[in-house]
Design goal:
Helix content is 32%, strand content 23%. The chain contains 10 helices and 12 strands. Helix 4 packs across helix 6.
Length: 301
Amino acid sequence: MSFQKLYFLFVFFVGGTIAFGQTKPNATPYTNEATYEKLKKKHPFITPLNRHTPPNIRIDKDVEYANINGLSLKADIYYPLDKTKKHPGVALIHGGGWISGSKENEKYMAQELASKGYVAIAIDYRLSEVAKYPAAIDDVKNAIKFLKKNRKKYSLDQKKIGILGESAGAQIATLVGVQPKNKIKVIVNIDGIVSFIHPEAEESTYAAFWLAGDRKDNLKIWTEASPLEYVGKKTPPTLFINSSQPRFHAGRDDMMKILKSHNIFTEYYEIKDSPHSFWSAEPWFTETFNLTVEFLDKNLK
């Protein structure tokens, strides 16, 4: 029996309320569509994401990049049709409190980046109900290795790999990006904390469930999972795009201060009067994408 089947049998018998020693948060499906429906109640001017697939790209859906004890891990790869040159790559990490969401959330960002000359890989990783930290980190790194291994098919410049994430995905992306051994060239952090232990950080049941314990009981892991702990002279240029909700900025200013002390390019933009998950609706998605591609064109191409 596969790991995935065993896990779901476990959840069935315990009622899904307690798993791996932690109380499971009351998570709802985290999709662009559900997020739009939620946000429009307070922001009636917004519109749902709806963009046609650009004609100058190709998409490989549900590509298996790893298999963990029978659990197939998949990614969607969006890439330019132009094979006359090598293209930089960008790994896209979805949000959802480490417990929800999927690579489908990255569809529009990935296809638009591909249309601008990037190989974009939207990654499904093991969520906290299936595996605790650092499983998701390992999955993202393995997906990037897979992309590099298949660089000829996608005309990928393996020496130019960036990483982007939103919310919990931004924390994951930043953690992978700040560790020099991963050789990430740029980081785009969209409304994700960079420290679980910073004074600005709020302890959450989502983080506790993913990190397998409360902060006071598992401080070592909470520290280890905090990107800010690794920031230094080898950290790549980093762009922050933030909502107007301060709790999602935890550690950002300290990280930027360290980067600037090493003359590493960094900047942040705040989407005025915006909620968390602003990137899931218009006009905020377009603003987010434009800021992202401008940064990538300057620092990755």
